From TrEMBL:
SUPFAM superfamilies in alphabetical order: lambda repressor-like DNA-binding domains
Protein name: Helix-turn-helix domain-containing protein
A matching Pfam family: HTH_31
CDD domains, per the entry: HTH_XRE (cd00093)
Domain spans labelled HTH cro/C1-type: 24-78
Keywords, sorted A to Z: Coiled coil
Coiled coil spans: 146-173
UniProt GO MF annotations: DNA binding
Alphabetized InterPro entries for the sequence: Cro/C1-type_HTH, Lambda_DNA-bd_dom_sf
Length: 489
């Protein structure tokens, strides 16, 4: 397990839907077929063929095979990355530009790609868009670099359904080494795992504020904070052990830092909720149409957030259910998010979702309006990208109250307890008239008569100390180790 890994899968060379769509259109025209004729051949409406040719839908393998047969070609030929015409390349780039968060933020109408639109006009538009992107990147400071890296990481997680097979194997090997036979991981077993890896445990009250734990490899000790009420004593230890097992070097940039954090948390979660036991439990629950994040939490004695994360790890790869996860602060700002079920999170011009405001009508915010915080909250939401079912719960931390939500599209809600909820709300976001603009009556009454004092988010101005990627104060860490470890020469 030593050394670094990348989170990207083996599918970096797979053609995108825009390129495939253009190739389908070219083959159809070459064979003298109309959109309707191709639709009849693959069992789809003509409008659906247009959606495919315009690159607005990702195709599954079976659909690609039907298209290849209908177009009298092979799947390999359909996907072969041969050069497109200059016009096709320009149209694809223009379509990509219009789909970017930056273009969307300009609030410009969609520009239809017609034959009357000259190559020179498209090139001019693309040049202007490229310059806007350059200026945005030039203005980016430390927080923006981190947000860009996080957006890239989220895309990689989506591509692999948030499932990391090598980490699952690593967790299974570690659990087998201490004789764990499945089910919840006890605190005693967690301590045995630390001993198996050669560490003694030391709980202290003076751990540096910039750290969650410190592993002293010289003396084979792990220092952890004295347990606080309401926290899981296993989590911080398992994260420290996971970092040791993964043997990750000092991160060079935010991408490295975030990937290491994801890997560490994933391995810790796979130890707390072992895959074999979890799949046995979840498969039974799915067969009974009683999937529940609450039940997974209680069965493995973990936090709701850990159970929600673990469910997203396993749901798509092993249960065939696309899902989304979102953690939202009481203010409505997204803290974490993941999706592979086509739900559309709000994004900034860099494609990042962290810090963006979730629609007021989503389950993730509606749950804050409910007085009963013990019972599960379920809701259907009609969004521009479709109808989604979601279950949400509020968890409290030193940073405030957060809602943790897991959802899926309407068709998959049948597997979950809570699917019979009558709560159903519409959401038109990102349309500002949905929930981001006050009513005309309120605006007329209060405009110029109210001046709230904003709470400035310190992270807007924050930078890592002395250029550190992790933000850890090494002076404090080494002073701490000098106090607690065996004196060095």
């Amino acid at each position: 397990m030593a050394g670094r890994r990348t989170l990207a899968g083996d599918d970096e060379d797979v053609l995108d839907s825009l390129t495939i769509g253009r190739r389908v259109r070219r083959l159809r025209v070459d064979r003298g077929m109309t959109v309707g004729e191709l639709g009849d051949a693959i069992g789809r409406a003509a409008s659906q063929v247009s959606v495919i040719e315009n690159g607005k839908r990702e195709l599954k393998l079976a659909e690609l095979q039907r298209l290849a047969r209908a177009l009298d070609t092979t799947l390999d030929a359909l996907l072969e990355p041969e050069a497109l015409s200059r016009r096709d390349e320009l149209e694809i780039e223009l379509e990509r530009a219009q789909r970017s968060p930056l273009y969307s933020s300009l609030d410009l109408p969609a520009l239809p790609v017609r034959k009357s639109l000259s190559d020179a006009a498209i090139e001019t538009i693309l040049t202007l868009h490229g310059e806007l992107e350059r200026l945005h990147e030039q203005r980016a400071a430390t927080p923006e670099q981190a947000r860009r890296a996080n957006a890239e990481l989220r895309a990689e997680q989506r591509a692999r359904d948030n499932y990391y097979e090598d980490l699952e194997h690593a967790a299974a090997e570690l659990l087998a080494a201490i004789g764990h036979r499945g089910g919840p991981l006890s605190q005693r077993a967690t301590s045995e795992l630390a001993a198996h890896l050669g560490f003694t445990l030391h709980y202290v009250g003076d751990l540096p504020a910039t750290t969650r734990s410190i592993a002293d490899h010289r003396n084979h000790r792990i220092y952890l904070p004295i347990r606080q009420p309401g926290t899981d004593a296993r989590s911080a230890l398992l994260q420290a052990l996971a970092a040791h097992v993964l043997d990750s070097p000092e991160p060079h940039d935010f991408g490295d830092l975030l990937r290491q954090r994801v890997e560490t948390n994933y391995l810790a979660g796979a130890l707390l909720v072992p895959q074999a036991s979890a799949l046995e439990y979840l498969t039974e629950a799915k067969a009974a149409r009683e999937l529940s994040v609450e039940d997974l939490r209680d069965h493995f004695a973990v936090s709701y957030e850990t159970a929600a994360h673990r469910f997203t790890n396993l749901a798509t790869r092993h249960l065939g259910i696309p899902v989304h996860f979102v953690k939202v602060h009481a203010s409505g700002a997204i803290s974490k998010a993941y999706a592979n079920d086509e739900v559309q999170f709000p994004t900034d011009v860099l494609g990042a979702v962290e810090g963006q405001q979730v629609c007021r009508w989503w389950s993730a915010r509606q749950v804050f309006e409910v007085e009963d915080r013990l019972s599960p909250y379920h809701q259907y939401t009609d969004k521009p990208s479709g109808t989604f079912w979601c279950t949400s719960r509020i968890e409290s931390s030193t940073s405030g109250d957060f809602s943790v939500s897991v959802g899926t599209n309407f068709a998959e809600a049948k597997w979950f307890r809570g699917r019979d909820t009558k709560r159903r709300l519409p959401s038109r976001c990102p349309d500002p008239s949905c929930c981001r603009e006050p009513s005309g009556k309120s605006t007329a009454y209060w405009e110029g008569k109210a001046w709230p004092s904003a709470r400035l988010n310190a992270s807007l101005l924050a930078a890592m100390p002395d250029g550190s990627t992790t933000g850890v104060d090494k002076v404090e860490v080494y002073d701490f180790l000098d106090r607690h470890a065996t004196p060095h020469p």
